[in-house]
């Protein structure tokens, strides 16, 4: 048998895309609460007010004027406000996860639900909400895998302190971590500090107004320090805690055997891996330091920061894998943007999803081998999945054979990496195990789940849950510990 008996089969979600209840139970606003819906053709937008009181919108990649504050326009639709309403459906949803046989459930805790302004003021009602979730999971024998911060920041910190650019936010985050480590000691053993840390940028995710490269890297340094401090605090509070980091991993192949293309792929790959280097090896890689020197980027550090980063290394690497890409040294060829926010060159050897994401199961095995060879610590695939437009048949069935095929091929690649390559793989939590709002486009029509949720792109629907065909398929996969993948 390829997978160990304690392999963590499950599924993954994020509070801002799934939880809803955006002002319920004392929760404060987060930056994602001011982000509109969107589509493949129209980007999601940040709603904000300037000092003169006028309201504006910009894309999530653009900088905001100094002093601009997030704004929730009652005339706009903001998907995070209800999302797919785990806040009111948690018992039903956890029962469905248990029916599938989940060994674990990856979720995130909303910082603004615990600390409404992100500071040292605690909302007891928010803590109690997650107590209920963890107790219910425990009742069903499901291990929670908690992402401490998933793609947002309390809006107060973004508006008043310029987010992660302000060193105070490190202390606020570590306080938040200490609060949940103590409160949920014995209930949660698996943690990750930041979701897809290599994608964090802009006001949306880290609360900074100026999204220029020097500002982003200064904020990123504060994130690295905060992660290291959180790891050390979590181990101090409970030595049984397993605390990982999380990166979006998209391996890139050279478009040709031209050494220039090979070097372009190397640069693409090590850019992602540098974020892992800091959190696993405990230092900035030499190529990143040289890059800062060439571009005149000076990271302001406090005395002892490098020592903190060296001491606060993680226990495992969590990563998302959806696709691979290709690299070319010819700038005229690098103009195709395919999936997960990465400029790329279309790979003619691969098929794609409706959203332009290359489907590459062997790329997952390649990724597992590369990461394990490079770091030699346990790996955890915490996101993988296939976004598609599902059709509900007249009899209520949802025949998502395309999703089953995607998962079958990727799980086989995992098995090969474990059985043939000796990779130490902890678990597998496919993304959006229940339908939720797309982070990239804000759509509901881009569905990932084994469980269908009746909601459309405008937020209309009953929120009723129903099982797709992939639900029953994944149930058998888990029951057989990955041995039964079907035909």
Your description of this structure?
The chain is α/β, with parallel strands linked by helices. The chain has one domain (8-22, 81-479): TIM Barrel (Alpha-Beta Barrel), CATH 3.20.20. Helices cover 36% and strands 15% of the residues. The chain is built from 14 helices and 19 strands. An eight-stranded parallel beta barrel has the order 1-5-6-7-8-10-16-17, surrounded by four helices. A hairpin with a 5-residue loop joins strand 12 (336-337) and strand 13. The chain is globular. The two termini are 19 Å apart. The active site is at 383 (nucleophile). Keywords: Glycosidase, Hydrolase. One of its GO terms (molecular function) is hydrolase activity. This is Glycosyl hydrolase. Pfam families: Glyco_hydro_1.
